[in-house]
Amino acid sequence: MKQAFQSLIDTLGAALQAGEHYTLGLSAEHSQFVRFNHAKVRQAGEVSQASAHLRLIHAGRQAEQQVTLSGDAHLDRQRLLDALSQLRQMLPLLAADPYLRLDESAWRSDSQQTHALPDLNEVLALLEQETGDLDLVGIYAAGPIWRGFASSFGAFGWHQANSFNIDWSLFHESGQAVKANYAGQVWRADDFTARLRQARAQLGYLGRAPVVLQPGSYRAYLAPAAMDEIAGMLCWGGFSAQALATGSSALQRLYSGDATLSPLISFTEQVSGSLSPAFSDEGSPRLDVALIEQGKPARRLVCARSAAEFGVLANGADSHESPCALSLAPGQLPREQVLERLGTGLYISNLWYLNYSDLPAARMTGLTRFATFWVQDGQIQGPVNTMRFDDSLYNLLGEQLEALTCERELILSTSTYGQRSTGSSHLPGALVKALTLTL
Q: What keyword terms does UniProt attach to this protein (predicted)?
């Protein structure tokens, strides 16, 4: 794949005309997919795909086109040359781009994370052994993902990341379910087995009589998967320089100094060691960026266009200025002490269908849905039917935050929209003094 990308780079270099510049991005994958229903394999297959993203720049104008690659070197070079010709014809018809800013440095980046992937037969055998008698629904995806970037200025980036991701739900005859996930780059059968058994144990609690709660504020523990939904909402422009400059960020009050979060909260865009490439889709090197430090704002994510428009320094963010590898620093609460420290309250495994009910106030709403339990004196009493919460981030991760767990979970994006995602989060669980349920 890397040689094929270099061939395209050489082809473009030879075809470029005076005054022209280009950037070329590559996205490719070879993925294995398996779908499960009733703990049986219902569909299995492989997907191999690759595409190139060509941008042509001349006299302050730019145009771009995506090219699907076939794997035939001669055909792919011709498709790229055809795209170059079409862009060359289009450029004179476009106005100059006032926010065009190019990285003209000849940077180099080469990361190849070639960890051995699990044998599918081992995965299937463990599933059969641990959950073969249960109603399991899920999907398994694994394989290498490649990203590449090159420019006429001499920049070159290459990234390969091997990963696996199995996402499943166990359904109880009551209609309720436990949702779980195991993902990463290094397969450990013992960890996968432990995750399966934990989900099975939680499924047993769903057979108890549901606990009926009235709307109100309750002490709660948010597991890492629930925290991932909250963190995902913050990625909707929360740290974006463009959103903050235009007043459309949910963290506007935090970055303006009108609000703070708990000193326990430190968010970082942790690109190093993640599945995401160390270069942006715009062609700039990416470094780790401290976003929130001990509850106070640090830096924001700035792409090249925002840097030009708002007069700030770019820091390698993608054009959408959203974290690709969000990390929340761990706390000091051991996971095995969660129920004891919770005492009486809600154990929330997942949150669902989140949205902002009041964006300027960073107020979110969503559903508990999967495996939410009522805990009394440190003991699970039974499941709580789906309820809606509505609360502000400044409460949940601010004055009401009591502790974060020592252990964190690496949660890889399960998105396969168009292609497998390289996004991830690394998050602890959170114990909060009060979470507001509205209905």
A: Hydrolase, Protease
